[in-house]
Amino acid sequence: MISRSPSILEDLLASLPDLRPQIYFKSSLTALSHAMEDQVLAGVDQPVVIASFQRERFYRQEAHRYLRIADRTEQVYVLAAPETDFANRSDRYETIAFDKTDALAQEWHLVVVSAHYAACLICRERQVYTAPGESSLHLPPDQSRRFEGIWTFERSVACKAAELLLTKVVLYRPELVDKVSAAQTVLVDNAQASFSHVDPGPFAERLVTYIQAGQYKLLKAYRSIAAQEQRERLVNSITSAIRRSLDPDEIFKVAVQELGQALDACRCLIYRCRATDVTVTLQHESLNQGVESLIGQRWNLADNSLFQWVAQHQEPLCMPHTPADVWLLGQEEVAVPTEQMQRWAIKAWLMVPVVHQNRLLGMVEVHHCGDTAHDWHESNVGLIEAIANQIGVALIQAEAYANLEDLNQQLAALDRTRSNLIAITGHELRTPLSTIQVCLESLSTEPDMPEELRQVMLSTALTDAERMRKLIQDFLTLSQLESGRIQWHLEPLPLQECVDLALSSLRSRQMDGTLPEITAQVSPELPLIQSDGEWVVEVLSKLLDNACKFTEPTGKVLIQAQPNGGKMLEVTVSDTGRGIESNRLETVFDRFYQEEGALRRSTGGTGLGLAICRQIVAGLGGRIWAESAGKDRGSQFHLTLPISPSEKEEKPIKTVRGSKARR
Ligand code: ADP
User: Fold this and answer.
1) What DSSP character marks residue 661?
2) Whole-model pTM?
3) According to a count of CB atoms within 10 Å of the terminal CB, is the N or C end of the chain lower?
């Protein structure tokens, strides 16, 4: 079993009680170690060099130096706690893998003893207490590492330290005992050598160089902390603007101001846009003094190849000062919008897209307008990207809110419609029901009623019962249509057959011969329609029913059809009847609209017919509308139906089965 002393530093302090340990930051130790190693590399003598690293990975960073040191002297010992392939080896120099539970794992040593000089660094890492919140300073963790120990050129101390370390070497690698004794001889032989042979100048110079390098690293770290802080502050102020308001305009206002200030940009723009937009009117901008404003300008997007590039790639684009007409972006050539740049004195251009789920929502632009060349700093692009992300969130939130408002309004409107519908339906059903009730009551309570009156009562009750049946039927049809649950069976059909079916159903219902004269001008040569025959017959029947209902028996009804120039057939049902006033031409399609009001109904009907027609025609992909020259001047109902796409290839094959509602 190898016996391990607790610590080289402790052993050294125990044997040389006059030594006063000091605190060193890690960066100082790095500078000192490098300066000591360089001293060996610059010298001509062959010193004993012993270096102990806490971990293999720390050694790896310096391994190349030890290879070079091994060219100068044979007495090189490197100790480290192995992590991957560090092991006891005798290659160009000796490596000693110590147990990671060894106190050496907490220490950092470098000892150099030569005939001309000696130096040693014997330190132990101190556990540093981190105050709560201290880590938020984002200091590189290495910078806060502290060590306690001795650094000196004093030969006696260096020799003692070397002796202690060599004892460790032999403990781990007993086979090296002879080589180590040779090293110890060097130590003893050189015991009287004096440091005064060495010029401390080069050492001090190297030390300063390394300290400067460390300082520069620190400066860079501080710069990145400052940039990070600025970024966080900006993102925070924009996030809180988003929290305060759901209005994108307000958020853009804050964002463009803050961003312009943080970047000290000549011109900064934020706008909403889609990838397909041709232009956008600019409303949010921040400017440096002397730069022309773009507020209110229609900003070209479709013709700006920079915008197009960003919209397509959804990535930031940083164009430095580019005097040529074409700019090489990686492998791609992008046309430079020279005219736009000259007009607005843009010398360098930065665009960062606002994207949500691959959808372009907006753009942040920064323009450099001075005469000097300008390169966009990577950290600025990162900052703008962070802000563009926040803006994206704000826009999506605002959109969701607006949709919610819309939905609320729609729901409120639906609720009003539902209440109206319940009231109207209730009224429409109650009216015939009361008539039926009165008739039946009279019939049952007055057995002596004259036969003639009995017949009147019975027929009135039957008529109203039929009206109720129709009303309920129409109401159910309309609800079904409005719910969107209808399965349309679209197929190529001859319109003429639908018209014939509607006419024969009308005639079978009106056997008393009070119908006006009906003429159909529907050529069998017309192209086929792509439709659901049963529903087409239903619409035509209702329109013909109405035309006959509102036209004197002496009047005329005409049904015609012709292609309307596009991909539709247009069907027109005209009559010479009572006509419709111009301000009612749309209202007639409302549910329960009847000109004379529900109670003074002279013509029968439910007031739902045209509402049903509009739903059906829309479902079949067409349009329906009414025209009339005014009261008593007849009406025309027009509807369009899509022509079958197969029309050119095949001729009619289907036959129409009959009206939907009357099956
Ligand atoms: P109904 O015919 O059952 O009353 P509709 O919805 O079919 O219900 O028609 C609604 C209203 O539109 C009718 O009450 C009538 O006032 C008007 N209307 C419909 N067609 C015509 C027409 N051809 N001529 C004049 N008015 C019409």
Assistant:
1) T
2) 0.45
3) N
